[in-house]
Structures are given as C-alpha cells and as structure tokens.
User: Fold these one by one.
Assistant:
Number 1:
Amino acid sequence: MIFVVVFGLSLIVQLIFYLGIYVRILSYKPLSHKNRKVPVSVVICARNEAENLDKYLPSVLSQNYPEYEVIVVNDCSTDHTDEILGKYLKKYKHLHTTSINEDKKFAHGKKLAVTVGIKAAKHEILVFTDADCQPVSDQWLTRIQQNFTKEKSIVLGYGGYFRRKSLLNNYIRYDTLMIAWQYFSYALAGNPYMGVGRNLAYRKSLFFANKGFASHYHLLSGDDDLFINETANKSNTAIEFSTESHTRSESKKPLREWIKQKRRHLTTNKHYKPRHKFLLGIEPLSRFLYYGSFIYLASIWIYPHYILSAFGLRFLLQLVFTKKVMKHLNEKNLLISSLFFDVFSLFINFILYISNRLRFKRRRQWK
C-alpha cells in the first residue's frame, strides 16, 4: 500500500509542476514594448577561441541595430586570437578589444574577464554571449533590448545548440531545452533563479550595485546563473525567447568534455537561494519516486486501471507540453527521445552530483 501512496503523492507533485509552473511558458504572450533603441554593449570573453571568433563574431558585428559596441576580452589566449581580432578591428569600428595577460602567480576564471569587459563597456545595457555562439538573426539585439523598461533590469534569453546527428548532441539539446523551459517558467511564476551566459542581458548599474561577483568570485563557474540568482526578482526580470532572439553554438563533441562542463555547472546549484534549491530538488526526486513506484505497481498488477490511467495523464501532459515548448524554442527531432531522456537524465545528473561531492571531499582531506 505504501507504493500506492508514494505513486499518488509523486504524481500530484509532478502535476503541480506541469500545470502550475511549466504551463506558463506555453500561454505566455510577450508585451509589445515600443522602446527607443538605446545604445547597448555586447561583451564576449574569449580564451583560445580564434577559430570560433573568426566563424561567429561577424554575425554579432552585423546586427541590424543603430548604435552598439562589441567588446571582446582576450583572456590569456595562446593561439592566434590577436590576429583574428586585428582583422575585424580594421573592418568594424564598433568592435573594441581588451586583453588580460597571464600571471603565473595569479590564477583566475572567467569572472575576471567578464568584469574587465563590463568596466570597458560604455553603455548601460549589457548583452552577453560566448565566442562560440552565433545569433540566429540580425534582430537578436533588437529583441533582447526591447524588454528593458524602467522596472526591468535583467533579460533572460535562450542559447541553444546546433542540431547534429549524434546521440550526445540529442541529449545536450534536450538538457538545454529542459533547463530553459524551467528557468523561463520560474521567471514567469515570479521566481527567477538563473540565466545562461550564451544569451543574457542586464544593466551595468545592477552589476556594480551588487558588487559584481564578489560573493562567489572564488568559484570557477557562476558568472551567469549565480549572479542572476542573487539579483533577479519578480519585478526586475523579463524573458525573451522569440526565434529571432536565439543564439546557437556547437555542442561538446567528446563525451568527457561535456561531462566536465556539466559537472562544473552542477557545482553552482548548492549556492542558490534555499527556496530555489528546494524547488529544483523536489522535482527530480518526485519524478524518481513516480517512475520507481509505477514500475513496482505495474509489476505486481495492483489497481491496474487507476495506475495506468494516472500514468497516461502525466504521459499525455509531458508529450503535449514538450512538443509546444520545442516549437517555442525552435528545437526539432527531440519529442520521442525526450520520453527516454526524462528517465535517463535522473540517473546521469545523480551520478554527476555524487561524483562532484566525492571530489570535493577528497580535495578537503589532508595529504
């Protein structure tokens, strides 16, 4: 009987997430802001990204926007980044560069480069993307900037990945889709908790009012999500996910590179506000209990009509909602695989989380 109770309670929690939170992005109608196009500064940090800069920087520099600057921070690059930037400096007057030289006595992460780029920026509105990202249209800046009002100081955008024929690419795109679905929906529910540096914007004054990354500067990651977690609230945060506002980048090809990236991102979760940690933890826990109890109840064939009907309800919601979100975020060929990934992601994220915890404990031990 305990498994029936577990199944029922976990199903209720899942339905609350779908019908109370996840549904918000499906019914969202963006406000029509006819803002004056104010000047903006685009900040890109690059370390050994010469090939990506040569490939993607022109699309950032060719935006259909009246007044903007692009600042590329060359962070200790040892490849031919300087040459690539030099080539584009001659062609685009609104491109500016600054460099950070390597200091063997002082190791630093991306947050220093971001801070240098922000200090070099002339304008109040800051838009962030990465060196390996490409805006999908020349309306990217227009779509992002139009969300800034007197009340709005943060705009969360969507940074997806190019579609390639591989299982890993499929999973990375699914994972990215689900994360975006989650942070967009939470923002619409008045509880924003993160954004992604591939497509993010906020006011320069907000950055300095928060003392930059001071509270988490010691962490390698978190220049995007931890900053948003600290500063975002229901009044100052807007979202933008129209197709023209997206950016795309290449997904990590070797599995070990993606695992390394994912593990680094997971290290920031524990620094979120308590209510965000609770909400982000209760959903996968309820999903695990839901699937586990369903498998057990199905195996002993208890209350089959009720159990299968309840399972079918959640399955139908998952299918319909996922398809609509895919359409909103212009993601294709993920619907069928998402049914499998919904279960698989529980295990891969749990393994990576435990792995991170074990590594942290080993580092704290005396040798």
Note: Strands lie at 40-46, 68-75, 95-100, 125-130, 133-135, 154-156, 159-161, 200-203, 237-239, 247-249.
Number 2:
Amino acid sequence: MALENHDIEKLRELEESLWRRETRFNEAYMRSILSEDFFEFGRSGKIYTIGVSLSAPDQEINAVLPLKDFAIHEIDDRVVLVTYISEVRYDELEMGNRSSLWIKTDSGWKLKFHQGTPTKSQ
C-alpha cells in the first residue's frame, strides 16, 4: 500500500511539531498526538514515558528544520516508521539518528514509540 500525499504531509508536520517549542510544550496538543502507552529511548540513553514527556519543562529548542533525510517506511496500512537525522544547535551541534513509530487510528496519527541515537555529522 502506498501512503497518500496528505498522510505523508501530515506525518512530516507531526514529526516536526515535536521540534517546535509552541507545540512540543503544549500539553493538550501532545496528548492529542501521543499514544496512551507512548515511550521513548532518548538520545541520552534515558527511557521516557508519556508522563515524563508531558511534564518536560518549557524550553527553547534549537532544531534545524526541515528535518534532514526525512523518510517514511510503511510497516502495514496503519503503521509507519519515520526516520530522519536531527540537528540541534546548543553550544555545539548535536546530531542524532531518529525513528518514530506512528499508528493511524480513527482519530488520526498517534506516536507510539520514538528513539534517538547520537551520531557524528553525516
């Protein structure tokens, strides 16, 4: 099955919203896109649950958008794996290989799992 253009655009929009301060720290918005059993293996190596993710303090995010090497890999007609390279500028550039598992539900796409792995520049 091939994803329709509106799904591809929506998944890019959703993934990039996680790197925008105004959406990433908006609890109502995040609850609308995270699966109830969401969890993450962070770039730091820490494991984050939905509760931890929702309670993160509001802070500046210096991510480079659009996301580098953004790709969607279809698992089945309702599950996709989104991959890309994150670039975040703090004192120095932090890069990570990223993957997100999105599930299409009756109410829209929900983020079930995310993983970040540190990497050097590519």
Note: The chain has a mean pLDDT of 94.
Number 3:
Amino acid sequence: MIRAHAMRLFERQGYENTTVQQVIDEVEVSESTFFRYFPNKADVVLTDDFDPLIVDSFRRQPKELTAVQALRNAFREAFARLSRDEMDGQRSRMTIVLAVPELRAAMLDQFVSAMRLLAEELAQRVGRRPEDLAVQTLAGAVVGVAMAVMIAVFEDPSASLADLFDQAMAHLESGPTL
C-alpha cells in the first residue's frame, strides 16, 4: 500500500518533488511504519518483489530443460502470475528508475545482487560453483536481458513487458547472433 501510493505521487509530482512526509501523509501511516518497510525514499522504487517469483518458478522447472529454457519458462510463469496492477507497477517502477539519475545509479547494485542470486540458482541447477565464469556469464547475460527490456519499455511505454522479456530470452536461448 505504501509503495502504491508513493508511486502515484512520484508519477504525479515527480520523484524529486515528492517527500517521504508526503508519502506518509498520503498513506496515513506513521513515520516508523514507513521506515520499517523502506529505509529511504529510493527503496520504495528500488525494492523488487519480482525476483523471488522468478527464483521459485525456476526451481520448479523440469531438469531436462537447459538452464536458459528453464529461465525463460520461469520468467513467463512469473509474469503470468502478476495482476494487471502489478504489471503496471513494474512498468512504472522501471520508468521512474531510468528517469531519475540517482535511482539509475542505485539500480546497478540491484543488478549485481540479482546476478549473484541468479548465479547461485544456476550453479545449483547445473552442478557447478556460482563463481564459475560460465555460470557468471550466463547470469550476467540474463541481467543484460533485464536491462535491455527496461530500456525498451522506457522508450515504448505501450510495449508488453512480458512479451519483450520472452523475446529477449528467446534470443538468448538461440545463441545471441545478429
């Protein structure tokens, strides 16, 4: 609820013009409640609840699938589980992150964390170490997919986030060539 109200304020007033106090007033929660969930204003936008959905789905994929096939299916399933409001929230989040230099810079930390998480999951699936360069390369490629999709959605707000992700993962699956 805090995030939903904050995102509406960010979209209406701009991220930089919205204060934590305005969010607190809008949601009608105490300052301590806000900071219990979000250590700062940036975390309202940067905190991503989508990664656990992908990891959960990835773990359930059949073992006969390649790692990329399993990831592609996991993304499809995770997107399918999102409601329209949640999908719109993901799109808004991406737009704000790319539009605000402070958030864009902070997103790099999230990409590194996502890459590490993905490397752990990939390594476990294929029986290798997370530090293995091939595992790290594939995890980095998937994070690259996420970055490319974010930019594509930012440039074309009418584009389907789920479809773009699936197209990008299909490209990765087939062996990236141009």
Note: The mean pLDDT is 92.
